[in-house]
Amino acid sequence: MKLDRLLTMTMILINRKKVKAQELAELFDVSIRTIYRDVDTLSKAGIPVISYQGANGGISLIEGYRVDKQVLTEDELTSISIALKSVLTSYQDPHAEAVLEKITGIAAERKTSLDYIFIDYSPWGSNALLKEKITKVKQAIETSSCLIFTYSKGYGKQTERMIEPHILVEKGRSWYVYGFCHLREAFRLFKVSRMKDIQLSEEKFIRKEINLSEQPWDKEWHEPKNTISLKLSFSPGSRLLMEESFGVEFIKEEQSIVEIDIPEDEWLYGFILSFGNKVEVLEPLHIREIIKKRIIDVMKIYTENI
């Protein structure tokens, strides 16, 4: 957006003595002519911008012009820094890096430390491929380009998809893209780690209105048609584990029972199996049978050569 570009340009000029128009054009992915039009807009708004011609030329503010850097408190600077550093562990964003550089400069002037909290969203061990995927999805969202990819579902089934990506979602320590799927003709949530051969299509799309405060991916996830009523029996010594996993409101203490409506998918099967012998599925029966079969299949792997 032009307003975002003008604000960012103003901050860059405040923090640097002189910036070349070419550098700004590359940063904002616009033409040099657009940058000079922005300079004219800033001048008309009362910000004293000067353009210098020649080999050592560039764009700067009149010497001595400053804005009050106290507009952000130390706590606010720290919060923004933590958010930017955390996001940059998952994907590349030159704009976020530029903002972080400016915030670090302001903090240095105030002798404020920004390094006492660090949130790393990346998985254990370097996962450059995942970071590359997320960066590519973000690029598609920013340019309103459709995404083409192969998507892996349960049991190794793969489908070719084209989607209109709207939102990158980090949830449950995994990254997803929420977009309109051309194959299903509806919005779907796709796990980025299951996407491969990702390409940006030349086909563009018009963004649809989405109310983020409603978290539409959660609403669709928990629709009655997508959920089952799960009933589990757990060993008495596992109560604390059950509380942490499901919440106290879904536990019947006197019976050591968990009852909850929950979406059924591959994640649920693995989740139940992760409790080992501490949990038994009572209902529904088809989930009980699925878990039983998977336990038998695992036993075969480990016993057939004994």
UniProtKB/TrEMBL annotation:
Domain HTH deoR-type: 2-57
Keywords associated with the record: Transcription, Transcription regulation
Top-level lineage group: Bacteria
PROSITE patterns listed in its UniProt record: HTH_DEOR_2 (PS51000), WYL (PS52050)
Keyword Coiled coil on entry: no
PANTHER family cross-referenced by the UniProt entry: PTHR34580, WYL DOMAIN-CONTAINING PROTEIN (PTHR34580:SF8)
Protein name per UniProt: YafY family transcriptional regulator
Annotated organism of origin: Cytobacillus citreus
